[in-house]
Every structure is written in structure tokens, then in C-alpha cells.
Amino acid sequence: MLGDVQVDALREAANIGAGHAATALAELTNRRIMVAVPEVRIESLESVGTMLGDPGAPVCAVLMNVHGDATGRTVQVFPATTAARLTASLLRTREPLFPDEFGPLERSSLKEIGNILVAAYLNALSALTGLTLSMSTPSFAIDMAAAVLTTSYLNFEDVDDHVFAVTALLSLDGSDLPAHFLLIPDEPSLRGLLQALRVG
Fold first, then answer.
1. How far is CA 192 from CA 11, 148, 171, 183, 195, in A?
2. CATH number, domain at 151?
3. For residue 200, what pLDDT is reported?
4. Angle CA(111)–CA(113)–CA(114) in degrees, nearest 5?
5. How many domains, in total, are found in the chain?
6. pLDDT digit string (tens) for 125-178?
7. How far is residue 72's CA from residue 95's CA, in Å, rounded to a whole number?
């Protein structure tokens, strides 16, 4: 288990990333969107699923690989209500029924939103650490919450891998919409990140 100093450093990166994400999303949707970070945890991959709520509930997941000075995977998870509300805001349409009405256009919209959020978090980490971090083209899935943490999506080898897990609240039209950002670095990359933050 990592200590408070490590978690505080990663929380700072998450809060900076949230600010950048809010600005980018507001420009994209032409609406005021605030992004808060009420919870940052570092857990094993095996236990992080409890953050996502009901393991049998369908969610949207935007998945990417991380490249550069640190490598690993990221998963941006949108629960049903969040997915529908964000899609409607971006497309300026009524909220689509989830998951039945999530066709190519809705999926593409959430991939773009996920891309913005992940880029904001990774850019904040890069700024704090001096490490070069880039991400792959996003892939998209609609599946049960528990399923998006399986090897078929993440290609992980060890359920004891540490996960940098951020719960975000996106405030839109008076509603707080939860979303979850998961960064799953390879073990050498996790050590490198913490050393670059001068807390390793």
C-alpha cells in the first residue's frame, strides 16, 4: 500500500487535470461544466471494482494504452446516466436511452469526451513529473462494470497491479455526474512516476 505522501501527489495531479478537463469540455459543448475530484485512491486491480458501483450494471468505457517514459493502460468509465447526459450535451439532442440508443454517433461522442479527460489527467502528470506521456487511439466498449476490468479489455498480467483511481464529479445543469478514471501503470512505470514526483 502506498503512503499518504504518494496519494497526495497524485491527488494534486488529478485536481490539475480536472481543471483542464472542465475548460476543454466547456469549449466542446459550449456549456458550463465543472469537474471536481472528491476521491483519489490507489488500490489493487482486484479491489478497485468496488469504486464502479454495481458490478452487473452496464457502463461505457473508453480504453487507451499509455506510451512514453511510463507505460500502462487507462480506462475512463461512464455510468449510464453520465453517458446519456454527456452525449446529449455534446450532440445537442435529447438524452439517448442507454445502452439501446448508443449507436456510432453516440459512441464517437463519448470517445471524444473520454479522450479529453484522459489527456487532461496525463498532461497534468507530465507537467508535475517532467515525464513524456502519450496515449493511443481510444477504443470503446459498453459492458458490465466488472467486465471492463478483465483481461479481455486491459491485457493485465497481475491482479495485484496498482491502479491510480480517480472518482470525478462533472457538474452540468445542476446535476453531479460521476465518472471514473483509472490509470494502470506497469510496475516499473509506477515506481518511475513516484520517483519523478520526488515521493518514490
1. 17, 26, 33, 14, 5
2. 3.40.1550.10
3. 52
4. 60
5. 1
6. 998 889 999 999 999 999 998 888 886 677 655 545 778 899 999 999 889 999
7. 33
Pair 10, 121: CB distance under 8 Å: no
Contact assessment for residue 21 and residue 121, using Cβ atoms and an 8 Å cutoff: yes
The range of the structural domain enclosing residue 155 comes to 4-196
Local structure of residue 12 (DSSP, 8 states): H
In Å, what is the CA distance from 23 to each residue of 29, 33, 154, 173? 10, 8, 29, 16
- Cell readout for 58 is 452496464
Bridge partners (DSSP) listed for residue 177: 170
User: In the predicted model, is pLDDT for residue 43 greater than 90?
Assistant: no
Q: Which three cell numbers stand for residue 109?
A: 461522442
- Between 190 and 92, whose confidence is greater? 92
Element (H, E) at 60: strand 58-68
User: Considering the entire predicted model, what is its pTM?
Assistant: 0.91
Q: Which residue has the cell 469504486?
A: 51
